[in-house]
Amino acid sequence: MTDERRDMEDVEEEPRRGGRLKGFLTFFLALAVVLLVVLLAAYRDGTGFDVLRRYLHYGGAERVGGAVRYEYDASSKNRFGVLGEGLVVLSDTSLKVMDKNGLEVWHTPVNMVSPALDCQGGRAVAYDVGGTALYVVDQNGLLMELDGSDDEPLIAASVSEDGWLTVTKEKRGLKGCCWVYNDKMELFYEFNSSQRFLLDGYTADDVLAAVALGQEEGQFVSNVVLYSLWDDEEPIGDYDVAGGLVLSIGKQGRKLVTVSDTGLTYATAAGTLAGTYSYKGAYLREYDLGGDGFTVLLLNRYRSGSVGRLVTVDGEGGELGSLEVRDEILSISAAGRYVAVLYADRLVVYNQDLQTYASLHGTDYAKEVLMRPDGSALLLSAESASLFLP
Question: What residues contact residue 125 under an 8 Å CB cut-off, 6+ apart?
Fold first, then answer.
């Protein structure tokens, strides 16, 4: 190679290096700007890290749907749940798990009269209320399947944040039983009730909270009985849920929270009452325990109609936010620090104080919404779901 040719190649290489260097500088400058915006937002309301998370995962453009679309068969009995970035769909005839790209991961036909679904801790339990079929799934598909006898039907089932499963069912000769499975789906504990009927159960921090139904002065009263999973002799505590029947039980922070038709009740794992929240005569229309340290309630002023309040309540029974509503609400969902509210014509994502975080108009095709912890939401129509990115 001649010296002249080498000189010409060196001249050509310099602009290429300069172009690459300029590209890297532009990229790092843009990244620095994004990080600065994120840090300012995080300092302001704590949502900035979710902005960064969505930006790095989905890109910077605001969009609805895009390339991700979840498709399923239309059914009035469809039940939906978030599994990480995927979706689980249960109907009376099928159970399906889809990944973050909307592709089917696992599917099985089912035969359920009253399908129910509970999701938490990256797992979902699908079961037939009053039936015998039960399935536990995660993002990769089936973890466990149960099929009991017709004379011992299922009452309720729940999964905890750490992946434990609690199954409440009828049992011959008793008034109910709770089976507790560990995160490996091995039967770990069994509680049999001979004195009071069992309505539900939840396991957290090595404690089973069994919801029992009793009577006091001729009225039905819900009572939560607490058992250590390491000692099946005597309960370690119990407490009454005054003035209403328990609809659901879960955990927020270090406290158990029960939702009844008249209020919320908070207690420690030892059975000490730690707070209450009364609906003050309002009618509970919808609720969600999925918020990070809060519960969202939709309370109606009347038995029917759309006049009421949207309320978020912290883990001690104090109001975080309250919003008067007069528009029809189709669905509410809470996850992370966000609340998604699907109105008849729009979607609004609020923070836990019920300040507007993002909104989307023209959602009359959607029937339900599922909030996700990173601030994104799934809009569910009759046959498909699309992703909304604030």
Answer: 117, 118, 134, 135, 136, 157, 158, 159, 165
